[in-house]
Amino acid sequence: MTTNTAEAILTEAQEQRFIIEDFRPLAESLEWDLGQRYLRERGSKAFLSDTSPVPFVINNDGVLSRQAGELPIRANRLAVVRLHGRVPDIG
């Protein structure tokens, strides 16, 4: 793919993008307002009886836990490579 083609694709993709809200601090954003409305309407039901309760959706997706677990491993491997030029086989 040439640079001109890549630039053309990127330009076209950005032209078709619809921006609902420009950048602003989270506490002043539409997303924050919608979240606050949802919690006001649902109250404790948002945490206890919704199909996908809030704490479950936030905490139990697994992606953040996996990434948090991978971070020290990657940092350790990078440190070993910088010190010794190789990564030992662990496990």
Considering DSSP H and I runs of 4 or more, what fraction of the residues is helical?
55-70%
Give the N-to-C terminal Cα separation.
41 Å
Task: Return the structural class.
Answer: mainly alpha
Largest sheet: none
What form results from the Cα inertia axes? flat
Taking all Cα atoms into account, the compactness measure Rg is: 22 Å
Percent of residues in beta strands? under 5%
The low-confidence runs, each spanning 5 or more residues with pLDDT under 50, are none
Number of strands: 0
Q: Any key phrases for this structure?
A:
91 residues; flat; 5 helices
Notes on the structure:
The chain is mainly α and 91 residues long. The mean pLDDT is 78. The protein is flat, with a radius of gyration of 22 Å. The two termini are 41 Å apart.
Helix-strand blueprint:
Layout: H1 3-15, H2 30-42, H3 45-48, H4 54-59, H5 63-84
